[in-house]
Structure formats: C-alpha cells, structure tokens
Design goal:
single chain, 1254 residues, mainly beta, five-stranded mixed β-sheet, 96 strands, membrane, Neural cell adhesion molecule L1, glycoprotein, signal, repeat
C-alpha cells in the first residue's frame, strides 16, 4: 500500500505541474493580445473601415498563337465581372478556362477547338458596396503559328561591281519577326558598310565582289512571341567577273527610293531612319538635322555602319527635317526625311482618392496631354456621366469635376478617361464620405535628418472624418509657421525649405480640440560639397583622360562611406571585366579615348541623406578625316576649279588644306605639291600645263596633324600647245681643244606642252653678225667640232614641239675647248720676312698664252737642307730631312704675289712656278734658290736624371732635333715644383755639353727643370721635367704573408723615392729540419714567393738585413688536398714510371762513361754553374744549398738568383744607387761598387724600379 500511495502522489504532482504550465501559457497569450491591442489600436480602427474597390493589376493587350498563350491578368479584392466586346463574359462558364478565386485572372488550359473565339476586347469590373472600378481595355489577338510555304530555291547572278539585294519575305504576323542572315553552318553572314541588313529584312550589297559568291545565304525569321524560328530556302549568289568593271561609280540609294520620306512617330517610342546606298568605292553615310543644324548626340545614335539613325525615345523636340548623305570619291546622294511626332494620351495630373466628411466640397482634377489633344470623359461606377440624371451639386468643366455638400450616398468610384486616335488611358479615383474620430498615424519621437539647403518634411499623418486640424510648434513653443521658409502641407506635414543649422531642434504636432500630439526631432547636417569637380577636357584620340571628383562630406555621413557614381550623358557607367575602358572611383579614368567617348560626364556623390553632382565633359580631338567629294568645274585648257567637302575635323578646326597633283604622263606615281589654302576655303582655281593628264587630291591639317589624303579626283586631260618656256642654264662645257660643247638643263617633261619635243641649238662666232648655225636635238649636250682653241661663241637653245616653237631664248656667250698655258710667270722675286716666312712676287703671264680661263698659279717648293748642307747629328743617329717639298696653290687670275709660311729657318730652298687653267698647268719657270735666316731652336730632344747622392742630381739631355741655326749653348731654369722659392738660372755656353750636376738640393723637395737651347736669334722652346733626389733605402715594413700548400707569398709596398736594398729570408721547418736561406730579395720588388716548402708544416720565418733580423713570423702551410693524386692506383702508376725512368738514366750514364765526350761549351757552362753555388754565411751554423728549395720572385736589382747567374755575388748585402732613364724611369747601379745585374727568379721579367718623373 505504501508503494501505491507513493505512485499516486507522484502522478498527482505531475498533473499539478502540467496545470501550472498551461495556466502560465494562457496568461502570456492574454498579455500579448492586450499589448498588441494597445500598440495598434489606431491601425485596427483604420482597417475596420471599408474602402471602395481598387484595381492593382490591369489586363494587357497581346497576341496569342496557342491556347496556352491566353492569360488575362486582373487583381482586385472585390467582386469582379468581365465584359468582352461590350457583352458580359463569364470565364467560369467555359470548361476550357481556368479562373482564380482570389482575383479576376483567367487562362485557357485546353487546346480543343479554335482559339479565335477568344479574340476580342476585354474589360473587367470590380465592385463592392461603395462603388465600382473598371480596368483598362485589353485587346487579345489570336493567330496561327507562322509556317513556311513551299518555295523554290533562288539563284541570283550579278556582275562584279553591281549592287545586289537578297529578299527574305517571311510569313506575315502582327508581331514582326527578327531577321538573321546565316550560312549553312548557322554562322552569321559577315556584315559591313558594303553588306548590310535593312529594316525590311533584306540583305543589301552596295557592290559585289567575287568573294560574295556562295550558295548558302539563308534568311532565318525569329518570331519571339510564337517561340518559332523559320529558316527560308538558301539563296545562291553568283558574281561574274568582268573586264569592263567601272571602278568609280557615284552613290545612289537602294533604300529608301525617291528624294523625300515622311515619317510619323509616337512620343516615347523608338524610331529608326534608314539609308542604304550603292556605289563604288563603298559610300559612307552621314546624317544631319536641317531644322536647326544640330544633331543631338544624347538623343540619337548611328547604327548598322552609319546606315541607321536611331531615336531611342522620341519626343516633340525631335520633330523636324533630317538628311542622310551618301558619298564616295565620285559624288554624293541625298535623301530627306520629315519626322512628325504625335502622342498617345499621357497624364499630366491624376485625380487622387480620398476620404471626405459629410458637407465638404470635392474637387477632382484630371488633366492629360497628347497629339492630337485628347478628349476627357468622366464615368461614375463605370457608367458615363453623360448617360446619368443631372445632379445640381455635380459639375464637370473639362478635366475638373466638382461635387458640393457631399453626403454618405456620394461615396463612389469615378473614372476619368482620356482618348485620341492613338489610344485611351483611364484612371479610377474614389470619393469616400464617412465620419471617424481623429487619429495621428505617424509614430511619436521620430528623428529626421537632412543636410543644409534641403527641404525637411516632418510627417504628421492623421485620419478622421471630418479631416482633423493640426498645428505645429517648436521646442520654444513658438508657432513655426510664422517663418517664411516653413509651411504646412495639405496632408498635415511640416515642410521646412532650405533648411539650415538654426532649424535643428524638437517640434510638436497636435490636433485641435483633442489631447492628441506627437514629437519630432530635426538634425540639419552640413551639405555634401564637391570641392574638385570634373573639368571640360580635350583629349587626343587613343590617349587616356582623367576626371576628378573630390567631395567634402559631413562626419555624420561618413558611415556608411559615401558612394561616387559616374554617368555619361545620363547613363550610369560600369567597370567592365573584359577591358579597362573605365576606372571608377573618386576619379574617372577613360582609357583609349574614341569619338564615342565624347559627352557630358557627371559625378554623383551620394550619402545617406543627400546627393550632389557636378559635370564636366570630354571632347575627343584628333587629326581630321580626309576631304571627300572632289569635284572639277570650269575646266579650261590652262585652268580649272577644284572643290571638295571637308571631312570630320574631330573637334579641332582645320587650319589648312594642301592640294597635290599627279601628272599621269610624266610623273605617274609621284604626287607633287600644288598649293595650299586656309581651312575656311573649300575650292581653289588651279593653273594647268598643256598636254597633261591630271588627278588631284586634298589633305587637311589641324593642330593634331594631317589627315590621310582624299581619294583622287577624276582625271582631266589638257590639250597640247607650243612650248611656253625654254631650257635654263645654257652654257659651254668644252673640255677638248677645237671642240665647242653646248650644254643646258633639260626641261621636265611636264613642260613639253605637246608631242615631238626637241631642243633647237643655235651658235655662231662671237662679234660677228653672221648666219646662225642650228641643229635640233633631243637631249643635252650638243658638240661642235673644229671650233678652234678657246674661241668665243654666241649660243641659244630653244624648245620646240610639233605645235611650234617656244619664245625667243636668251643669248649666251661661251668658248670652245681650252689647252694648257704656253708660258710660265716671269721676274720671280723672293724676299725673306723671317726664318719661316718669305714673300714671293712675279709678273703675270699674257692673256693669249693662257689658251683658256686663267685659274691661278702653283708654287713648287723644295727644301734642299740646312744652310751648311750638313745634317745635324742628334741622339739616336738620325739626320734632319733634306728632301721636304710641297705645292702652294694661288687661285685667281689677278694674283701677282703670295706669302709663304711654315718654312724651316736656316735652310736652303728651291722655288719654281707654273700657270694653270681648267686644262692643266703650263711649263715650269726656272728654279730660284733662297736661304731662310736663323730662328730659335726647338726643345732639347730628351732630359733625364741621375741622383749621385741625396742632395745632388745630374741632368742628361740631347740636342734639339730642329736646331734652326747654329747652337751657341743652353739655358737651364729650375725651382721648387710648388712654385715656392726663386727661379735659378744656369747658362751653359758650350753647345757640346750634354750633362750637368746640381748640388746642395733639398732631398725633401721636387724640382721643376726648364731646359732650352739657344742660337744667335735667342733661346728656343723649353723641355720641362720634374724630378727629385733619391733617399737612402731600408728593408720593407708591413709585410703581408699568405700560406699555400708548398709555398708562402709575401707582399709589401715599396717606398717611393727610396733606393733599392737587398734582404734575405731565413726559414725553419719546426717539424724537424734546419735553417735555410732564400735568394737575395730587392726591396723594390713588392712581392716574393718562397717555394719548396712541405705541406701542412709549421715554419718560422726570419727576415735579415745587414746581418740583423728586422722581422719574424710563424706560419703554417696548408695540408694536402684530396683527389686522385692520393689514390693508391695513381701512386703505384707514378712509382712505376719513376722506376722506369731511373733504369733508362742509368743505362744512358753507363753508355756515356764508356765512350762519350763533352764539348768545350758544355764544359764551360758546367764551370759557370759551379760558380753560381750559394755561399756560406758565418751568421748561421747550418743551412742547405739544396736546389730543390729554390724560390720564385719578381726581378730584383743588384742581386742575382741562385739559378741562372752569370756573375759572382760580389757586393753581397750592399745598397745600390738608381739613376733616371731618358724617359724618366730609374736605372739601378752601384755607387762606388761594380755593377750587380738584376736577380732573376723562376718567373722573372726583368723589370726595374720605377723612377720619379712628374
């Protein structure tokens, strides 16, 4: 029983818990309902009011091809009924029709029977207790799906160069098809300005070419509404080539025909004007507006290679006259269009539905426009007012309906309908007369934000009937309507125009005679301002241009960040993924600017509250297009008039036109400049030459360059005539004695003026009025023989052709051929001016002896040598030249003297003269010898130095190579090279002295030496050298040691201006060995290599100078490197080779010891070699003279190597003196000792220590 009680208690507890949870849920639901009721009390009351019927979707007119296409849409939440063709129509009674229960929409779902029974005009009526609304009328057209009729394949043959038109003729339909011309592979036929598709679907060829021949021109008609594409039968086009093709044909229009077309367009629709020309070359088409001359680029565009002019949305401003111009090089064709724009009715003002209280007066305004002017009619609940009983309170005047002192019975739906011949429009509006208590529908404490200058509208939407009256107050309790910029709208909203920061604050809207009110808050922020707007920019075609748009934005409007949009002519721009045309941002970058990029560009900076914009423009400029339509008029034999039409100047005025011509007879393929004209002149008068075939072309220029030349004009041929000019530059070019050669500049064929062109040459002896000799020739020159030597003649050359002779030519005097002069100049006198200049005078030759035109004289000079006729000995053994000769040309027939320069002083010369003309030189005059006086000598040939001691310097020199006289001595100037101190002068009066020693010099200073030679004329040019004495040398310091595997490299910097000294290196192998000594090392070497060391061993190096150590160093050589040399097989191979060589050597020695003899030379060399062994040194107990320890060094001065020595080591360890070579380098030599040749190591090159010469 205890368990039962426990089980019962548990079950009761669960039941109680479930009851508590259910009770809580009910309480929550009640609370929610109460809250919702309290929050939405006003909306609930509003929704409880019945409204007159409202139509939210109207049926539309269209064409149906199948039953599935028939759907008429109508939405209204009231009762509805359909009317078809004025008769009641119940869709639900038709079993093939499916209707919607919630709307008036119905559709046909069954395809049984013809669908034509559904064709008609439909209108739907929606009704409730408050009135009836009607829909706009919709027309349903039914058609069968288009099908192709059986037809034959077409074959069209056209001659090359002719036009061609391929017809399509698709099945007719109320919905015109889209036409596509394709081939059998369903590839579109390539279209161009030559091959285009017209609006009628035809394929037009302005002229055909052989490649147009094909058999698969297929027209595809696409019926979008019927979802059908019909391919027609292929058309075969055959182009037959013709040799008689006229390659220049004036344009004519294939479509439209005639000279003028009148077009009627409806406002808001698109319109396309079409001009398709034929011609050869392919004509281009341009469009212009004749009404005001301006074709709007923002409202029109050209398409289909310029053949179409499209208006996307035409309006009344587009009405007027237009012209299309087709042009090529042969002419133009024009067609005029008169565009008339009419309009279906469109609303200007619609009447608004509203609630009214009993007793109010109602005014409904309904205004519409159209061309022709539409008619306005009113209906009440779908019934025309004209058919209802008159109501005194209701009046209609035009589009305004007035209803006074309304009652609840006046609640109804009124229809305003506007109609003209182009259409009907309808609007439903209701009048709802009702009484309701006032309510404020706008929520309380709403915050409004605007920017400065905007209009702020603070809402206070009320509901009630009669309409509640409200008032607005600010937070200071003042009546805000007292301000001129504040007004209250009809719907109760408070409008603050041109808001400013002082308008910020709190406002209160309250209802009269009630306690209803709401509060609102207004924040006025700084307006967004564009501080860097886009500019009006000109850019050359193909280049990039940037427009900037920087804006100043209030901080409160930066989150979210402002957006910058760019528009071109009102159309929004987008960045494209396939090219980089536009780069958008705060700046707009337009790449590769072309003509289509021209226009007005607007940037819009959009924030959360406001939007501002600024506009700039891009004008694309470029060099002009070529002129066209070249026309020849007023054609005369000597002139014509050329006119042309300028091409597009691409927004840069044309400054100049250049006219060129091609003369096909004499200058074919070469265009010649003719004339130029200013950019505002389009016709010029052109002078012509007879007997020419002319074509012309014109080129335009603007600031961006020249256009391409225009197409050539037609050819014009001028008639022949007699010559009007004679050849120029008539002269004689006689070169042979007794021959008269007459030459002239041949005339250009352009001036022949007619056929049979020749030159008539006339000549006679000068000074005689004898008969003219004459001859006709075709080219220059003309030769007359037996004319004497250099005889004068009168000559003339005249142009002639088959039509006559040219004007009388100019008389020219010439001469027959020349011969060499017969005489030489006489009475030649030579007067020396100085050592290098003489003056020569002579008596000219007689005129008769010249036998031609005297051109001048030639003076032949030859240097015989110095005056003493002995070559002067100079260093090197060279003698001065004794055979110098040259020629001086004295041009001019009147010259009788000449000054000769550049002679060598103190020399003997020989002079001869000749006269010369164009034929050559005459005989030589007799030789005339003369002497030139002494001059100053040249600089000494060399200057070198020796330094016997630290304070003395010996100068060695060579005499001048050009003494220019007898030397009498030398003059030496010297001073410190830094120009400090006095200049010292030393005169040497003995010309045979070539050296001198200067003592008491400062060893720390460089000296500048100036040495010159002297003659009786004076001192000559100086040779300049800089030198200094040498200092006592010492062993090197700062020695750098680098160890190799079996050697040690030592380097140091040799002291400048120091004498060379020698030192030694003692080295000891610390792994077991004895002291060894290197060869002598010169301090001027700068580098030495100690060889023959053991790899991987520690060595001690000791450097000795004058038997004392001046530097020590320990170093370890590198260990052996691994490689094939350490391999066992390699060692065995080498051992075998060495053993074999040893056996061969033993055999050779045995053989020589038995019978061989040494030569004397070998014996002497053996003795010398024995003398070259290293000597012992008492300073060291032991050292090895093993020749395997030889070292390699650079060449050393004063000490020889242990190998290859030719002398003993006399003077071991002493210093050496160094003298200067002629070129300024040092020569080492012993001072007070016998010479020691330079030591040579393994790689010696024998170089000496450098000298000090600046």
């Amino acid at each position: 029983s205890g368990r039962k009680c426990l089980r019962f208690a548990r079950s009761r507890g669960l039941c109680i818990l479930h009851m508590i949870l259910a009770l809580c849920f009910v309480c929550v639901c009640v609370c929610v309902c109460v809250c919702v009721y309290a929050m939405h009390n006003n909306l609930c009351n509003l929704s409880a009011v019945m409204q007159p019927p409202v139509i939210t979707a109207h049926p539309e007119s269209y064409t149906a091809f199948t039953a599935e296409d028939i759907v008429l849409t109508f939405f209204s939440h009231c009762k509805f009924r359909w009317v078809k063709d004025g008769q009641q129509f119940d869709p639900a009674s038709d079993p093939q029709v499916l209707t919607s229960e919630k709307s008036g929409t119905f559709s046909v779902v069954s395809g049984d029977g013809p669908i034509s029974k559904y064709m008609g005009k439909y209108r739907c009526y929606a009704s409730n207790e408050l009135g009836t609304a009607i829909s706009e009328e919709a027309q349903l057209i039914t058609e069968n799906t288009p099908i192709l009729t059986k037809e034959k394949r077409q074959r069209k043959t056209v001659e090359e160069g002719d036009k061609a038109i391929l017809n399509c003729n698709p099945p007719s339909s109320s919905t015109p098809p889209n036409i596509h011309w394709m081939d059998k592979n369903l590839q579109h036929i390539h279209q161009s300005d030559r091959v285009t598709k017209g609006l009628d679907g035809r394929l037009y060829f302005s002229h055909v070419i052989p490649s147009d021949s094909r058999d698969d021109y297929i027209c595809h008609a696409q019926y979008v509404t019927a979802r059908t594409i019909l391919p027609k039968e292929p058309i075969q086009l055959i182009v037959t080539p013709s040799n008689s093709v006229v390659w220049h044909r004036k344009p004519h229009l294939l479509h439209p025909t005639g000279s003028e077309t009148r077009v009627l367009a409806l406002r808001g629709q698109s319109l396309v004007l079409e001009c398709i020309p034929k011609g050869l070359p392919t004509p281009s088409v341009t469009w212009q507006r004749l009404t005001n001359g301006v074709l709007s680029t923002s409202r029109t565009s050209t398409q289909n290679f310029g053949r179409w002019l499209r208006f996307n949305s035409i309006d009344e401003s587009d009405q007027g006259d237009y012209e299309c111009i087709a042009n090529n090089s042969q002419g133009t064709a024009k067609h005029f269009f008169t565009v008339t724009v009419e309009a279906a009715p469109y609303w200007i003002k619609k009447p608004a539905s509203n609630l009214y209280a009993p007793g109010e007066n109602v005014r409904l305004e309904c205004h519409a426009e159209g061309i022709p002017t539409p008619t306005i009619t009113w209906s009440l609940n779908g019934n025309p007012l004209s058919g209802l009983d008159p109501e005194p309170r209701r009046t209609v005047h035009g589009g305004t309906l007035r209803l006074g002192d309304v009652t609840k019975s006046d609640t109804a739906v009124y229809q305003c309908e506007a109609s003209n011949k182009h259409g009907i429009i309808l609007v439903n509006t209701y009048i709802h007369v009702i009484e309701l208590p006032p309510q404020i529908l706008t929520r309380d404490m709403k915050v409004y934000r605007v920017t400065q200058g905007q209009t702020a509208v603070l809402d206070c939407e009320t509901f009630g009937s009669p309409r509640p009256k409200i008032q607005w107050n600010s937070d200071t309790l003042e009546l805000v309507l007292s301000h001129a910029w504040v007004s209250q709208l009809v719907n109760g909203s408070l409008q603050i125009s041109n808001a400013s920061p002082k308008d910020s604050g709190s406002y209160m809207c309250s209802v009269f005679d009630s306690n209803l009110s709401i509060a609102a808050s207004l924040d006025v922020l700084n307006r967004t301002v564009i501080i860097s707007p886009p500019e009006h920019k000109r850019v050359q075609r193909g280049k990039s241009v940037t427009l900037t748009c920087d804006a100043l934005v209030d901080d409160e409007l930066r989150n979210p960040p402002p957006q910058t949009l760019w528009r071109k002519d009102g159309q929004k721009l987008h960045e494209s993924s396939f090219d980089d045309k536009y780069t958008l941002g705060s700046s707009l970058i337009v790449a590769n600017a072309q003509s289509e990029d021209e226009g007005l560009y607007t940037c819009e900076v959009i924030t959360e509250l406001d939007m501002t914009n600024a506009s700039g423009s891009i004008t694309v400029v470029d060099r002009p297009d070529p002129p066209f339509n070249l026309t020849l008029t007023n054609k005369q034999s000597r002139s014509l008039t050329l006119s042309w039409i300028p091409g597009n100047d691409h927004n840069s005025p044309i400054n100049e036109f250049v006219v060129e011509y091609e003369e096909l007879r004499s200058r074919k393929g070469h265009w010649q400049f003719l004339l130029n004209s200013s950019g505002d002149i389009q016709q010029v008068k052109i002078p012509l030459q007879p007997f020419c075939n002319y074509t012309f072309r014109v080129t335009a220029f603007n600031e961006f360059g020249r256009s391409e030349p225009s197409n050539p004009s037609e050819t014009y041929r001028t008639p022949p005539a007699a010559p009007d000019r004679n050849p120029e530059d008539v002269r004689t070019i006689s070169t042979e004695p007794g021959v008269l050669t007459i030459a002239w500049k041949e005339m250009d064929k352009y001036y022949f003026n007619g056929p049979g062109y020749q030159y008539k040459v006339m000549w006679r002896a000068a000074g005689h009025r004898s008969h003219w000799n004459q001859s006709a020739v075709s080219s220059s020159p003309f030769v007359v023989r037996e004319a004497g030597t250099f005889q004068p003649f009168e000559i003339k050359v005249k142009a002639v052709n088959q039509l006559g002779e040219g004007p009388d030519p100019i008389l020219v005097t010439g001469h027959s051929g020349e011969d060499r002069p017969l005489m030489a100049p006489q009475n030649i006198a030579i007067t020396p001016v100085n050592g290098s200049v003489v003056q020569v005078k002579w008596v000219p030759v007689s005129r008769d002896s010249v036998q031609g035109h005297l051109l001048g004289y030639k003076i032949y000079l030859r240097r015989l040598g110095p005056q003493d006729m002995r070559g002067i000995r100079v260093q090197g053994g060279h003698e001065s030249d004794n055979g110098d000769s040259w020629v001086v040309d004295v041009s001019g027939s009147n010259q009788v003297e000449e000054v000769l320069e550049g002679l060598r002083p103190y020399s003997k010369y020989e002079l001869k003269m000749t006269a010369y003309n164009s034929k050559g030189e005459g005989p030589f005059s007799g030789p005339h010898e003369f002497d030139t006086p002494e001059g100053v000598p040249g600089a000494p040939a060399s200057l070198t130095f020796d330094s016997p001691s630290e304070t003395s310097l010996t100068l060695h020199w060579s005499p001048p190579r050009d003494p220019n006289g007898k030397l009498i001595g030398y003059l030496l100037h010297y001073q410190e090279s830094n120009n400090n101190g006095l200049m010292k002068v030393l005169r040497i009066n003995d010309p045979d002295v070539y050296h001198i020693t200067l003592d008491n010099l400062d060893p720390k200073i460089f000296y500048a030496f100036y040495l010159s030679a002297s003659t009786s004329t004076g001192p000559g040019e100086s040779i300049v050298r800089t030198a200094a004495t040498l200092l006592d040398g010492g062993p090197p310091s700062n020695i750098t040691v680098t160890a190799g595997e079996t050697n040690v490299n030592l380097s140091w910097v040799a002291g400048e201006r120091y004498r060379n000294v020698v030192f030694y290196i003692m080295y000891l192998n610390k792994n077991g060995g004895r002291w060894e000594m290197s060869e002598m090392i010169n301090s001027t070497q700068s580098f030495y290599q100690l060889q023959g060391l053991q790899s991987g061993s520690q060595y001690r190096l000791s450097f000795l100078f004058n038997n004392s150590t001046f530097w020590e160093k320990e170093i370890k050589t590198e260990g052996p490197k691994g490689g094939f040399a350490t391999q066992g097989w390699f060692i065995g191979l080498i051992s075998a080779i060495v053993l074999l060589l040893l056996v061969l050597l033993i055999l050779c020695f045995i053989k020589r010891s038995k019978g061989g003899k040494y030569s004397v030379k070998d014996k002497e060399e053996g003795q010398v070699d024995s003398e070259a062994r290293p000597m012992k040194d008492d300073a060291f107990g032991e050292y090895s003279d093993n020749e395997e320890k030889r070292s390699v060094s650079q060449p050393s001065l004063g000490v020889e190597s242990k190998l290859g020595s030719d002398d003993s080591l006399a003077g071991y360890g002493d210093s050496v003196d160094i003298q200067f070579n002629e070129d300024g380098s040092f020569i080492g030599q012993y001072s007070g000792h016998r010479d020691v040749p330079g030591a040579v190591g393994h790689d010696s090159s024998g170089a000496t220590s450098p000298g000090i010469v600046l």
